[in-house]
Every structure is written in C-alpha cells, then in structure tokens.
Amino acid sequence: MRMNKHYSIDRFDQGIAVPKRETEQERSSKMAQLLHSLEALVKQPAQQAPPHSVKIAIKTKGRVVFVMSSDLVSAKAEGNYVLLQQRNGTHLLREQISVLAQKLQPYGFMRIHRSVLINPAYVEAMKPMTNGEYSVCMKNGVEFNVARTYRRQVKELGVLWLGTEQGLEH
Question: CATH number of the domain at 55-159, please?
C-alpha cells in the first residue's frame, strides 16, 4: 500500500479517534439527560396502585346491592345488559360490556371475547379446540371461548408456562 506523504499512520489514527470521541460525548450527553429524567421521576409522588378489590354497586329490584369485584367470576354481554356471574349467584346490570371492561381492567379483569370479561383468579384451565382456538374453563364450571383477537392477551394468565416453550404457541 502506497502512503501519501500527507497521511501517516498517526494522522489516520487521529482521524478515526475524532468520531469515537464525538460518539462518547453524545453518549455522555444522553446519559446525563436520562439521569436528569430519572431524578425527576424519583421526586414525583408515587401513584398508588388500585386496590385489589372494589365494591361494585348494582341497582337491582328497587335496591342497590354491593358486590366485591374479587367475588366476580365473569361478565357476559346479554343485549343491552351484562350478566355478572358471582361465586354464589348472578346479577343483571344495565351497562355496556366495553364500559365495564374499562372500569374493571385496573382490578385484573381480562377481556377474552368482545362479549366476555373474566376474573383471572377464577380460571382453572385452558383447553385447545380443534380450530386452533382455546376455551377457558372457570372454577365454577363455566367455559368461554377465547376469540383470536384476545388470544395474545390470554397468554398473560400464565406468568410461568411449564411444559411449553412459549405458552399458547405450542
């Protein structure tokens, strides 16, 4: 390789070192910005997580019944109503399932179908179906089909999937 007299190995090394220094400087700057953001987050008051269970007021038969959300097994759309299945009974609530889903989502309820919400605490098993979909078996014996749209979300039921590589994919 022929070297021009204007270029020496030292000058070449120096030329390569300039972008390296700039990259290090950029990284340092970004790190300082991240540190500043982290400090700001730490100084903010902690947001409280929603309680594990809340009372749900249900107007039924001329009175208001209070039900703990932790006692609800599932909610299923029935026209303009939602059938709330408790461990020991049911209630019919005049509400849209989408509104109920938003209200109950912070308390762990999961949508598995456009018309069904479940309380994961009451899921006993999942069964694969012949069409590649799944059925969720609740502890009270009720089974619900999981719509393809919500299949990925249902993978969250198992924090640790044993006997499979990737949960529902196998």
Answer: 2.40.50.1020
pLDDT tens digit string along 55-89? 888 887 788 988 888 899 999 999 989 999 998 88
Q: Is 33 helix (H, G, I), strand (E, B) or coil?
A: helix
The residue extents of the domains of the chain are 55-159
Planar angle of CA 75, 133, 88, nearest 5 degrees: 25
| Angstrom distance (rounded) from CA 107 to CA 148 | 23
Query: Cα–Cα distances in Å, from 89 out to 14, 70, 73?
Result: 79, 14, 10
Q: Give residue 18's region: left, alpha or beta (phi > 0; psi -120 to 50).
A: alpha
With pLDDT > 90 as the criterion, what percentage of the chain qualifies?
20
- E strands along the chain, which residues? 55-60, 63-68, 72-78, 81-86, 89-93, 110-113, 116-118, 123-128, 134-138, 143-146
Task: Supply the pLDDT for residue 105.
Answer: 87
Burial, 123: exposed, middle or buried (Cβ in 10 Å; 0-12, 13-18, 19+)? buried
The predicted model scores a pTM of 0.62
The overall average pLDDT reported for the chain is 79
- Euclidean distance between CA atoms 90 and 74, whole angstroms: 10
- Please count the residues of the chain: 170
